[in-house]
């Protein structure tokens, strides 16, 4: 306030500092909530230290601001409506929530109690407001909302997983059978069938990503090469990004193998590249992915993945919070604020680390460093026919999807097994009861009408305690490994699966009773 304003306030007995200025000044300066006075033109004429601290302005700097200048643009109309209620004598005081913009242009949620002071003649003199910072409360509300959204996604994913993975199992199984038993290497259709298998496996990775996000499924690690995943992502980016964003891939890693789930590596790279692209969507620029081995002799072998953009960058105060759950700089319904925290969680689970360097208008660079596993990874899709490993053992296969039963019958019989397939758990139970000793192993779906897979297993084991049982499931939330061991189930395998994968499990169980 100016000297004249202070003098006017001290002479005005209707002002809080008028008659008992010292007392009210002490209270005003030491309250742990914000207090401000505003004239009828919307100019702040006084603000206490807590208000200044809350908004990041000096007290004199704050006094020079108008009330609307400090208000978030999306809340200015709300503020006008509330103040008009006071001016029209509809209310003596009002309470509402709104957002301020602090000195760093970050939104701060506050709860405001506003009162209009009038003189003896009823003429308005000034507004006085008490302001409480409720940013933490709003953050918790947002976390709850996002948690509910996450749970909804998890419920949806669980609901569609069984049918979706059954479809993928049928696609992969029939394509694999054709590749192994019906097509020759030089057949023109061989390449197309391999592409079908590759696409179906990518679809299964998408399901895994949903489960990983919703915490409904634990991922399984294997040796995976990063370079092919990066090439695939760059191909996708070039096909989808606007022409004003150029994409560049620089591969300088002699060894690029890490122990991870391929879906997780895909998710990390895709999240970082998507964020980089969004930072350049207004003006365009260059998105660069660089993969190289680190050359620090003091640490174990590592691989470094850098995603760099030439976008708008970030100030320090935002950069410090980008890995916080639910923190987002996006407005409205443009994002959940979960992308980078999920990336951080994946990298941490892989015993790696992630860093970011960024300055406003100078772009950003995210660097992920992961432990290197120098070993030749297994082929993702083994197409060579293994030797017929079945020795005439009799398999009882149970699934309520007719297509899965059909392709499993063809595939397992081709491998040298006897096969009895049932389309339902009740039918399978009755079949088993007629002649328990004729079967060497039971393979059952988990989610079925009638008995679920675990219940069916219990009933079969009550009849014959030594019968090996394998359960197939669309997601492992339905049957944990601990629960399976308690029942006596030998293996739990996730759909969709390759025939070689389930054949290996069958042989391991039958050859090691």
Describe the structure.
- The structure is a single chain.
- With 513 residues, the protein is an alpha/beta fold.
- It has three domains: 3-133, Beta-Lactamase, CATH 3.30.450; 220-377, Heat Shock Protein 90 (2-Layer Sandwich), CATH 3.30.565.10; 394-511, Rossmann fold (3-Layer(aba) Sandwich).
- It has helices at 3-11, 21-30, 49-55, 59-63, 67-70, 76-87, 135-182, 188-214, 226-240, 262-279, 316-319, 339-349, 402-414, 425-434, 453-463, 481-487, 499-511; strands at 34-38, 44-47, 93-101, 107-118, 124-133, 222-225, 245-252, 257-260, 285-293, 302-309, 353-358, 364-371, 394-398, 418-422, 441-445, 469-473, 491-494.
- The strands form four sheets. The chain has a five-stranded antiparallel beta sheet with strand order 2-1-5-4-3, with helices on both faces.
């Amino acid at each position: 306030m100016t000297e004249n304003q202070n003098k006017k306030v001290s002479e005005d007995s209707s002002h809080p500092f008028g008659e008992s200025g010292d007392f009210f000044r002490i209270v005003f300066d030491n309250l742990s909530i914000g207090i401000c006075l505003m004239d009828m033109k919307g100019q702040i004429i006084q603000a206490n230290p807590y208000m200044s601290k809350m908004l990041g302005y000096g007290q004199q700097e704050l006094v020079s601001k108008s009330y609307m200048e400090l208000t978030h643009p999306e809340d200015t109309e709300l503020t006008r409506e509330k103040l008009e209620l006071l001016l029209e004598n509809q209310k003596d005081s009002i309470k509402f929530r709104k957002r301020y913009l602090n000195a760093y242009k970050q939104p701060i949620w506050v709860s405001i109690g506003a009162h209009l002071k009038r003189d003896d003649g009823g003429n308005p003199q000034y507004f006085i407001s008490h302001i409480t910072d409720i940013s933490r409360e709003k953050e918790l509300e947002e976390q709850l909302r996002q948690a509910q959204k996450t749970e909804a996604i998890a419920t949806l994913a669980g609901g569609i997983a069984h049918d979706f993975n059954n479809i993928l199992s049928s696609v992969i199984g029939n394509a694999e059978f054709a590749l192994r038993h019906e097509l020759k290497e030089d057949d023109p259709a061989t390449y197309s069938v391999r592409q079908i298998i590759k696409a179906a496996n990518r679809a299964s990775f998408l399901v895994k990503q949903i489960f990983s996000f919703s915490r409904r499924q634990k991922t399984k690690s294997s040796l995976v090469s990063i370079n092919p995943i990066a090439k695939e992502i760059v191909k996708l980016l070039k096909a989808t990004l606007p022409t004003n964003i150029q994409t560049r891939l620089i591969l300088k890693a002699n060894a690029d193998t890490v122990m991870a789930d391929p879906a997780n590596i895909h998710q990390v790279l895709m999240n970082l590249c998507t964020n980089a692209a969004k930072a350049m969507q207004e003006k365009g620029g260059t998105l660069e992915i660089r993969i190289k081995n680190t050359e620090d002799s003091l640490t174990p072998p590592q691989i470094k993945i850098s995603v760099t953009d030439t976008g708008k960058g970030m100030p320090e105060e935002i950069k410090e919070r980008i890995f916080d759950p639910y923190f987002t700089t996006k407005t409205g319904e443009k994002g959940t604020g979960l992308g980078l925290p999920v990336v951080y969680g994946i990298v941490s689970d892989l015993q790696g680390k992630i860093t970011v360097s960024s300055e406003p208008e100078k772009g950003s660079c995210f660097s992920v460093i992961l432990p290197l596993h120098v070993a030749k990874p297994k082929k993702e899709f083994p197409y060579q026919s293994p030797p017929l490993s079945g020795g005439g053992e009799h398999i009882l296969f149970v699934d309520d999807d007719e297509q899965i039963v059909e392709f499993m019958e063809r595939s397992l019989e081709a491998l040298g097994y006897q096969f009895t397939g049932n389309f339902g758990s009740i039918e399978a139970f009755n079949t088993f009861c007629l002649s328990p000793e004729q079967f060497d192993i039971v393979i059952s779906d988990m989610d079925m009408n009638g008995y679920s897979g675990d219940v069916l297993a219990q009933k079969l084991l009550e009849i014959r305690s030594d019968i090996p049982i394998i359960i197939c499931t669309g997601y492992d939330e339905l049957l944990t490994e601990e629960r399976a061991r308690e029942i006596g189930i030998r293996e739990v395998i996730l759909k969709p699966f390759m025939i070689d994968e389930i054949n290996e499990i069958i042989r391991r169980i039958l050859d090691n009773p």
